[in-house]
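ENTRY TYPE: paired fold submission
RECORD: A
CONTENT: sequence, then C-alpha cells
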Amino acid sequence: MKSDKQVKIRHIWWIKPNTLIGLALLPLYILIGFISENLDNFNYWLSFLLIFCLFLGSQTAAIRKNRISNDVIFHKKRSETILKCLFYISALGYFFWFFEIIKNPALLFKALSNEGQVFTLRGVIETTPGLSTLSQLSVLYSAVYIKLVVDGSLKTKGKYLFFFVILFAMTLFRSWVWNERLALIEFLCPAIVIYATSKNVSNKSNNRLRLFPIIGFFAIYIIFSIFEYFRSWQFYSKSEDNFFSFTLKRLTNYYSSAVENGIGFISWQTTPSYDGSLFFGFIYQLPYIGELLRSSIYKSKTFASYLQCCADPEFNLASWPFLIASDIGIPLSMIFFYLMGYVFSTAYKNFILSNKSFIYYPVMYVALLELLRQHYLHSPRFSYILVGAILVHLFIKTRGQKTIPEEHSFSTEVPK
C-alpha cells in the first residue's frame, strides 16, 4: 500500500551546486587570480563571468519548487544484477589494461623492487581504446553500491563489498602507476556525496559532514604528497629543501597554471575555433571517427600546439570555462554555462529526492570539483560513465511511496 509521507531533505552546502559554486568555487577562483597576479587581466574576468553564469543557472533551478516524487525502494534482485554487471564490465576493462602484468607478473615485481621505477610500467603497458576505458564503470559501481547500502536495499553485502574493495584496489594501483589521481577522485567522490546526504546518517554525523571540506583539504594534501613523493620528489629533492612546502607549491601550481594556461590560450588563439574540438572533445578522441574529424575539420590553433610553444608541458591543463570559450565564443559560452548550472541543480534535486535518476549528480559532481582545472564533462572518460549512468537509470527497478516535496530546495527542516 502506498502512503503519503513527508521527506526530510538533507542539504549540505559543499554538495549543493549553487552553494558550492557561490561559496567555494568563485572565491577560490578570485584567490587564484590574486596568487597568480591576474586580477588585472581581461581574459581572467571572462572566465569569472562564465562561472558566474553557471552559478546563476544553478540558482534558477534551486529556487524552483520541487515536484512530487517517489521515495524509492530499490528492487533487490534487479539492483544486485546491475552491481554484478558493473563489476564484471569494469574488471574486464582492467583485465585488458593490466593484461601484460597478469601475463608476466615479474614486470610488476621488478618495478616495485627499484625505488621510483614503478612508473616505467607505463612504457610497457599500453591502454586499449574502447576496452580499457570500460574500467570507468567502476565509478558507477561505487555510487550504486554505496546508495544501496545506505538505503538498506542491499541485504547480501559481503560479496559486493569484496567487489568494491577489488575495484578500489585496481583504481588505487592505476592512480599510482599512471599518475591518475583523478581516477581516485572519480571513484570516491560519488560514494562520499551519497553517504553524506543519506537520510540514514545521524544528525550528529551530519553536523560533522558540513565541515568536511576542511578535513577534505588536509586529506587531499596528504594523498597528493604521498603520490608526489614517489612521482617527482626524487627529481626535485636536490633543488628543494622542504618536502611539505614543495608539495603545497605543486598543489597550488596545478590550479594556478590551469587558469594561466586558459588565459594564455585565449590570448594566443585570438578568435574562437568554432570546430567543436573541445566542446565535443570526447568525439574527437574516439578511435577512427576522431582521426577522421581531426584530418578533415580540425584546422584551427589547438590547445596542444599552444602548450608546446608557450607553456610548461608538465602543467598541461586549462580551466573548463576558457576551453569552452575558445571553442564556441563568449556569448554562446554564457548560454551554455547558464544551462549547465540549471542541469547541475536539476540533477541534484533528482538525486536528493532519491528518485530513479539519482545516479547522475554524484558522478557529475566531480566536474564541479575539477571546474578550475580541466573540462571533465567533455572528456572520453566521462562519456563512458554517462552512458553507463543512463543504462543504470533505465534498468534499475524501484518501488516507492508518494512523497510530498518541500516548499523549496533551501529548506532543511521538515515542514509541519
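RECORD: B
CONTENT: sequence, then C-alpha cells
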Amino acid sequence: MKSKRLIIVGLIVSILLIFSGCGTEKNTETTNDQSITDYYIESLSVNGLSRSQKKEYLSRDDIYAVGNNIAVSKAEVQQYTDFYLNNGESEENAQKLAEKDAMERNALYVAAIQNGYEVTEEDIETEIKRAREKNSRLITVEDRGIEDGDQVTIDFDGSVDGKRFEGGKAEDYPLTIGSHTFIDNFEEQLIGKTTGEECEVNVTFPAEYHVEELKNKPAVFKVKVKEIQRKELPEANDDFASEVSDFDTMEEYKKDLTEKLQAEKIEAAKTADEDKVVAKVIENATMEIPDQMVEEQVNGMVNDYARRLESQGISFKQYVEITGMTAEKIGEQMKPQAIKRIQTRLVLEAVVKAENIQADDAAVEEQFDKMAEDFKMDKEQIKGMFGEEQMAQLKEDLAVQKAIDFLVAEAKFVD
C-alpha cells in the first residue's frame, strides 16, 4: 500500500466547536436528599404522575437506592437478580449485576427525558407495526383484482418509440403496489387487474431520470400478472408479544421497547456529536489519499449494497436491469462517501498514534461480552473465532473508538 501523508493542524489539545442546537454543559450534581428528590421528580415529569405522586414514590419503603440522581426500586433490582440467578450466576454476583443494570436502565431513562429524547406512544406503535409487518404472512388471492398494498409477481417488457431498452424487461418480478418502486404511475395502473391478465401500462420517464436517452420519454410496458398476494398482519396481543420477544404480555413488551428506543435515541445523539467533532477535525486536516485506496473502499461499498439487495430478495443483476444502472455508475455515486470514510479513518488513526491510544485487555473483554450478548453465543466460542489478524483488527477498531471519545471529550459544545 502506498504511504499516507497526514498532517493534522491544531487538533489534539483542545477543539472549539461552534454548533447551533447543541446544549451547554449541565451540572447535575446534588448535595442533599431533597435536591436529589426534586431532580428526579422533574426528570420523570412525562410518566403521567403528578409531582406529589412522584414525591410519594420516592419516599416509599421499596426504594432500594438513590444515587447519582437515580432512584431504583427493590422490585426492579429483584427482577434483574432473578434473571441472573436463572442464568447460573452466584447470588452475590447476581445482586451486583442487578444493581448495576437497574441503575444503568434508570439512568438512561432520566438522560432521555433530560435531553428531549422522550419516547412517544407513536414511536412505540411504529415499532410494533414494524414487528407485525416483519412477522406477516402472504396469502395468495384468487377472487379479486390487485389492491393497494398487495405484493404481485409480474412479467414486463417495455419499449420507447417501439424499441426495447436496457433494463426494460424482466420475468417473475416481485412488486409491492404502493411502494413506488417503478416510475410515474406504473403501479396504480395495475390496480384491479387479476391473475393471468395481460395489459399495457403507459408511463413517462422523469426529466431527472439517470439514463440520458430516456429522460422525458413516454414508454409502453406489456405486463402479465402472474400472482397476487395480500399481506396478513398478526394481531398485536399477548400471543404476539410472546412470539416476537422474551415477554409474555404486550405491557411488558411495550416497556422493553420504550427502554430500547430511549437507548437508541441517546446513542443516535451521541453519534451525531461524534460525527460533528470528526467532521471539524477533518476540516483542519491535510491528507493525500491514493486512488487505489479510494477504489478499494468504493468496491467494498458496492459489494455491501449488493448484499443488502440480496437480503431483500432482489439480485444485483435484477437491480441493474430495472434501473439501467451499472456497478460503475453506482460506484461513482458512492465515491464521495467512500472518500469521507477514508478521511475519517485516517484522521482517527493519526489521533490514535499521536496520543498513543491503545485498547487494553479489559476493553477487549468487554467487547467480547457485548458480542456474546448480541449474538446469543458463548463468549469463549466467539473468542475462538478470532485469529491473530482478526484480534489485531478488533484492537485497532477499539482504539479508533477511544480516539473518537477523546476528541469528543476535548471538544466544547456551545450554543
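NOTES ON RECORD B: Residues 19 and 276 are 8 Å apart (CA to CA). The two ends are 43 Å apart (CA to CA).
STATUS: closed
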